[in-house]
Each structure stands twice: as C-alpha cells, then as structure tokens.
Amino acid sequence: MGDLIHSFVDEVKSFAEPLTKLNKRQAVSQGVNLGLIITSALMIWKTLILLTGSESPVVVVLSGSMEPGFYRGDILFLNMGQQPIRVGEVVVFNIDERDIPIVHRVIKVHETQPGGEVSILTKGDNNHGDDRALYARGQMWLNQKHIMGRVVGFLPYVGQVTIIMNDYPYLKYALIGILALFVIMSKE
User: For residues 33 and 121, which has the higher predicted lDDT (pLDDT)?
Assistant: First the structure.
C-alpha cells in the first residue's frame, strides 16, 4: 500500500514539474491567457443574450416530457422575438419558487384584450395533462414574465455531457481543473 501511495505522489510531482519550471513572466502570461479564455466565454454568452432577447439562449432538456420531439440531453437554442406567443410553439419557462427551467408546448393562449396581458397554458408532449400541477400554488396560467424564450433550433444528445456533470459534480470540477492546467502548461 505504501508503494502505491509513493507511486501516486511521484506521478503528481512529474505532472506538476513543468509548472515549477515556468519563470514569473511565463506564469503571468499563462494566467492572463486563462483569464482571456474565461472572459471571452462570458462575452460570447452575454452577446447571445443580447441578440436573442432571452435570459438563457441555450438550455439542455433534462426530462423526457417532450419526447418524441426533444429527448433528454438535447441542446435547445432560444429566441424571445417580438411576436406574441402562439399555440403550438415550444417555449422554455421558469416558475416562481423553482430554479430549473421547463421546456413544454403552448396549448392555450388567453388575451384579455388585443395588445394586453397574455396568459399561457403549457403541456409536455409526453404528458397526459396540462402543466397547472407544475405551476406555483394558486397559479393557473403563465405570464410573459415567466417565458425565457421560444425554441428555434436544437442539437440532439449533445447536452448529455451537461447532465453527467450535474449528476457528478466532482467530475465537473476535475474537468475544469484539467482544462485550466492544459491552458497554463501550454507553450506559445
């Protein structure tokens, strides 16, 4: 058992050796590169938010409630648009008191007056009844404020990676750490 631990420690030391050989200038340069990668990703995300009008322009389907149209792990692209929401559209919405967005189809739209408040009722394609049981206590309809966006496109099964990382958070942190090490250790 002791040999196994010494072997592991030696492996970690050999893996970290290139980091110890970086001079201060190289270390600062690699740190700046890592910061630029993170900043670029955030800028791309914020640009997508502005272009689509959606608070979350990309979401992953987490359940089978929309099968056969969308399967668990599909990535959906959202756009809010200016047109009113209509029956048959697939929307992503948030419910008060819940953190996870839901992807379902609009089955009823009720307008109090033209151009006025719009009330929306949704249902998953693979569900038997409407979503009133999912809404907050006492809520019978969704309003525009609940809608995050309309589905305008999708990539099948690509979001499985996200589901796996949410199910196993240590895997997510290990992957982020490994990617950061690759960026820091890369030579220009």
Answer: 121
